[in-house]
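Long-time lurker, finally posting.

We've been working with Peroxisomal biogenesis factor 12 (Seriola lalandi dorsalis) and I want a structural starting point before designing mutants. I don't trust myself to interpret raw outputs, so I'm hoping someone here can both generate the structure tokens and explain anything notable. Sequence follows.
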Amino acid sequence: MAEAGAHLTSTAVNEQPSVFEVLAQESLMEAVKPALRHAVKVLAETNPSRFGFLWQRFDELYLLLDLLLQNHFLSHCSASFSENFYGLKRVSGGWGLSVGLGLHRKSHWRSLLLLCLVPYLRAKLEATLAQQRDEADFSIQLAQSRRQRLYRAAVAAYPYVRSAWQALSFCQQLLFIFGVARTHSPLLWLARVKLARLNAQDIRDMELKSSNTGYPADQSLVQKVWWLISRAARGVAIPLSTSLSLGVFFLQFLEWWYSSENQSTMKTLTSLPAPPPPLHLQEERSCETLSSL
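Top reply, 14 upvotes:
Generated this for you. Predicted structure of Peroxisomal biogenesis factor 12:
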């Protein structure tokens, strides 16, 4: 479980993560979706007949994969994929530091909906509003119905609502930095959870939970069907998480490679004049020239 132990500091006295850790795990998932979107776009442009449906239904397919991935990590690691990648866990109920692994059922489903469904709805809303804004700019303004006026009012008010949400998130982060708030995000507050660092006991609990997945022979038919569904979802989530873990390192490398600091360093190195050849090579060339004459 390499992703479970990434950035793990077992010697840390305080289990509350720093603001750099929580912001890093947020930016991780924000970079995954655009990268997958670009890969699907390249596939669709290369072979539209075979991969065109992936581009047309990208948001829905990504939502399905995100649900499987996040549900797997919330069930087995009490964290989202990005939180587990940075050695964090979600704690529900008591706010003490020495809280073990495992989320309450309500906290689990609230976290899953806020992790997956809210970004999907926000992306759909922004795409719809952008399309309506473009149509309104290049269309003839006729007599509008009440529904159309309400729609235009929503399009005009959405930037202010988004700015207010961003201001609320920024204030929450400031309160988290100064130790006033226990969460850095309003979404975590809505899910009634907080983030904490993983410890050695949590790693052992995750390994024990992964090993105790035997077939429930003495259970009811509904429980057996649910076990088969969970095993199938786990079979999809584990390769997906492994691929994402490798892809994350590649994305971070590309981000560093195309960063402004690295590009300025490369330009500085390439702009330097070429060094002169060694002296012994110059003497050999002179001797060869004289012998040819």
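Before you design anything, note these points.
Residues 13 and 97 are 10 Å apart (CA to CA).
The chain is about 70% helix and 5% strand.
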